Amino acid sequence: MFTVVRSLLVAALPVLASATPSLAQQAPATEAKEAAYTRAITERADKIVATLGTLPADKAPKVRDLIAGQYRQLSEVHEARKAQLAALKAKPQDEKTAAEAKQVEEKTTAALDKLHGKYLRQLGHQLTPAQVDQVKNGMTYNVLPITMAAYEDMLPTLTAAQKTQMQAWLTEAREHAMDAGTSQEKHAWFGKYKGRINNYLSAAGIDMNQAGKDWQARLAARKAESAAH
User: Fold this and answer.
1) DSSP SS3 for 188
2) Same domain for 218 and 166?
3) Same-domain pairing of 155 and 215
4) How high is the mean pLDDT in each 10-residue block of the chain (229 residues)?
């Protein structure tokens, strides 16, 4: 009997051996992926820190680690949401599932809000308000200042009140975009608020379609003039 069992085990060894490498390779692959991600968010954070001017030697790495840490924690929250929603897709799509999906979204929003507040408090201990704004812009591809500058160039007759309102909406968009999980989601937040701004300006009597065409013509003329020189 023992001989038979041993023979069965020996016969099974090739099968076990063929399965083992895939399991053994999982840990190094996961470690390599984690190392690559750590490098990516650290480099991203370093680039943002570089825009803040000269910081004390002991402060720069602290700020970099705060930014990189925020990227990591945001990723964890978004990945958890993604996994939970994926699991719900496998369930019958009824009212119960819809309620569970809504709960996932609410918990995600609460987690992001908590992270957001804590992160800004930590940055505030290390940086000036102006530098914190630079970090926010760095995390959102500088869309706020770029967009505001574009509006002012396109519409040189904007009033101070209009500019103040537009700046407020773009700042609100940036607060949301900072916590988004992808570049597309970050830009989507700004897109939403730019739609609000366009409606606001249209209501004030500005023909945004014509203003856009006129602006593009001016940009083309500037480009041609620059090329000529």
Assistant:
1) helix
2) yes
3) yes
4) 44 46 68 91 96 92 97 97 94 94 96 98 97 98 98 98 98 98 97 98 97 96 90
